[in-house]
Structures are given as structure tokens and as C-alpha cells.
Amino acid sequence: MRALIRAGPSKTLTLDTNHPEPTSNNFPNSYIVKVKATALTREELIWPEPLESAIPIPGYDLTCIVTAVPQSTGPKVFKVGDEVYGLTNPHKQGNARDFAEVDERDLALKPRNLTWEEAAAVPLSALSAYQGLFIHGGLSIVGDGSNESKRVLVTAASGGVGIWAVQLAHQAGVHVTGTCGPSNIDFVKSLGADTVLDYRKTDLLTWVEEEPEQRSFDVVIDCIGGQTLADAWKCLKKDGRMISVAEPADLKKPANGIAEGVQSVWFIVEANHGQLSRITNMIEGGKCKAQVDQVFELEEWEAAFVQLESGHTKGKVVLKL
After folding, report:
1. Where is this region: Disordered (predicted)?
2. Looking at the domain assignment, is residue 278 inside a domain?
3. Rg (CA), the chain
4. I need a surface site. Which of 79, 181, 222, 304 has the fewest CB within 10 A?
5. Interval 72-125: pLDDT, tens
6. Which residues contact 200 (CB under 8 A, 6 or more apart)?
């Protein structure tokens, strides 16, 4: 089969057109799947976890068709022929290959109203936003009015995680403010953001300090890091939550100017069948949508990574198999 591998001492990317296929005998507790698409994540080539594999393969989001079920005894959630999608463990090989082996807990049924490429853009980003908001951010996922007075800031709101943080916070009944470039303002508004700031024209901290009682936030989902993260610390209310997906928030914590009781969380997103199934339901119900920046054939992987690392994507970069 074809596989995008990281070969040699420098782990240089190479397209291997004669890579061995996984078999159910080698992975008795995993499904074997035919990969249809995989989404790439910015800076994933410098993550330490994938390098634990003897032959690393990138791409941890995937959409696929089940071709073989686990040999282990007991009931199986999926059957041969099911169209599924998911997020696989970065400690294992990724999915930029024709066939892969995937744990049952990493998968959910693919949204019926999305293409293979659109669905591949969902799992890692949507689960990161879901866990940031509802597991670590203390918000209620149910739009029952309990979040009505809450305010959430999402930086880089047109990026992979930002898109989902805006949509999920909006669905939960939160007042959402997003930051983005001028070309994406209308797009971020269409996702459900109540206020959208053009970061090129509006300094976030200055904007909040103009009316701190009305503009400070209960939760920040920072997808940028650096100075933006440092400023965002000062934009939180008393007992607010700083959730950073770009870098550990404490690395950019200012020495002063932070409200009392503000806490930070740095977490690594985890695959979760139940959470991804709930996200699927929202997509099929028309409450959330996926966003693909650009689709490349597997053989165009070099151009895909150039686009990915440009820092100006709207949604995810996807490899089509």
C-alpha cells in the first residue's frame, strides 16, 4: 500500500508506494480500515509522541471504511462496511496510508451529511474544543440557560480548533467573542460568534480594559500562544479559566494584572467515542459544520505541508486517499 513515512535518522518524510499493509493477525484488538482521508495538524512533525514508532506516519484524524473487525471475543460496535471517523493515538502510526489499524474507542460513525474530506477535518479540532470548553472550562454543554451570563473568548477563531470552539460555545448558549484576520470576520460571525475582533485593527487587551465589567471573560480558549496568550490572561474575570491549546498557559502568565482566582489548564486532547458521537449528532442536526481549507492528493503531501505551516489556513488541510 501507499504510506507517507518518516524515514532515516532525520525522520524525513517519504512516500512509500510498497509499504506493508496491517493485518488483523498483527493487531487482534483493532479494526482494520480503508482510509479515505486524513487531516494534518500544524506542527505535528515536531510532536515527540509520533517519534516513538519505528516508522512514524503522520495524520491523526481520519475517515475510513471498516474492512475487518477485531478478533477478540465480545460484541463489536462497528461492522465491516461501516463508514467511520475518528482521532487516533499519536503514540502510534498515523493515517496517511491506504489502510490502518484503529482502536474501537477512537472511532464514531461518520456524519452522513459530510464528505470524506469534510469529516476528516472534524475529530481532533472538535474534540479539543469540546474538552477545553466542557471538561476543563467548566461550562455546561446543554443549552439550558446555565451559560447565559457566561462570556468566552476564542483567539484564532477561524483556525482548526477555533472554528469548533466558537460553534460549540454558541450551541451551549455562551456569549462568544472571536479574534481573526479581516478576511475571516464574516465567516467567524456565521459560526455563531456574537463579537468578532480584527486582530490587525483591535488590540485585545486595550479593548477589554475600555469596559472591563462588560468585556472580561469567564473562559478563554487560546489557539495562538505567545503575546496573545500573555494578554489573554488579563482579560479574564475573577475565577476565570485560561485554556490554552497552543502552549502551556503558565509559560506566558504575567507577573501582575490578573484577576483573583484565575486558573489555567494545559491538556492533550484525547480520543473519546461518546464525545465524538455527540459532535456527530450536532453536525447531522445542522447545528455545527466542518471547514476544510484545502484538499490534496496523498502524492501532493509536500504542498499540503507547505499550506499547513503557512499559518493562514481557514479550517483544516486534508490529504485525500
Report:
1. 1-22
2. no
3. 20
4. 79
5. 888 899 999 999 999 999 999 999 999 999 999 999 999 999 999 999 999 999
6. 181, 182
pLDDT, mean of residues 266-289: 95
Same domain, yes or no, for 33 and 161? no
Residues 188 and 79 in one domain: no
**Same structural domain, 303 and 232:** no
Cβ contact 113:104 at 8 Å: no
Whether 133 and 113 map to the same domain: the answer is no
Q: For residue 284, give the H/E element and its range.
A: helix 273-284
Is the same domain home to 137 and 118?
Answer: no
Mean pLDDT of 199-209: 95
| CA end-to-end distance (rounded Å), the chain | 11
Q: Which domain holds residue 107?
A: 3-122+290-320
